[in-house]
C-alpha cells in the first residue's frame, strides 16, 4: 500500500486529491496538512511514501518544507512531489536541487497523477517525459558553469553513458532501446549510479549530470 500525505492550503484541492487517491486499491491518504510546518510534522510522525507538496503555503512554504524533509537522514525513503499551478514555476528548480523527486501541475489529469505517485515510489521520477524535457531544458538554461567532475571518476564508462541519457530525459525503457539492453539492466545501471553518487533519486541524478558537465545545454534529444 502506497501511503500519501497531502500538503496544500486549499481544502478543496486536498479533498479532490483524497477522493481520487483513496479510490485506488494500492494507495491511501495517510494524512493532510494545510501548511508547511504541519506537513513536516506529519511526515516525521507518519513516514509516508510520498508527499504531494504545494509550493505556496502559509507558515512555511512548500520549498522550505521540502528542504526539511529531504535534509533529514531519517526520512530518506520519503519522496516529495511538488504541486504547482504553472509547469515551469521558478521555485520548482530549487525544489529539485533540494531533493524533490519531481512536480505536477494541479490540473493534471487523474490518470497522470496516479501514474506519477506510483512512478515516484518505484524510483522512476521525473514523471511525465514531456514535462521532464521542458524542466531539463529550463534547468539547463539557468544552470551555473559545470562543477568539477571528480564524482564521475567513481562511475564505470557504461554508468556515465547511462547517467548522460538520464540527464537528457530518457526513461529506463528509452535507455534500454538506445543501448540495446533490457529495461531491467538499464534500471540496474541507473540505480547503481545513484548509489555511487549519493543521489536521492532520478531527479537529483539529472541535476548532477548538468552540474558535473556530463550533459550540457543543447544536448536534448
Task: Give an account of the 3D structure.
This protein is an alpha/beta fold and 221 residues long. It contains ten helices and five strands, in the order βαβαβαβαβαααααα. 50% of the residues lie in helices and 13% in strands. Strands 2-1-3-4-5 form a five-stranded parallel sheet, with helices on both faces. The longest helix has 15 residues, at 183-197. InterPro entries: CheY-like_superfamily (IPR011006), NreC/VraR/RcsB-like_REC (IPR058245), Sig_transdc_resp-reg_C-effctor (IPR016032), Sig_transdc_resp-reg_receiver (IPR001789), Tscrpt_reg_LuxR_C (IPR000792), WalR-like (IPR039420). Residues 148-213 form the HTH luxR-type domain. Keywords: DNA-binding, Phosphoprotein, Transcription, Transcription regulation.
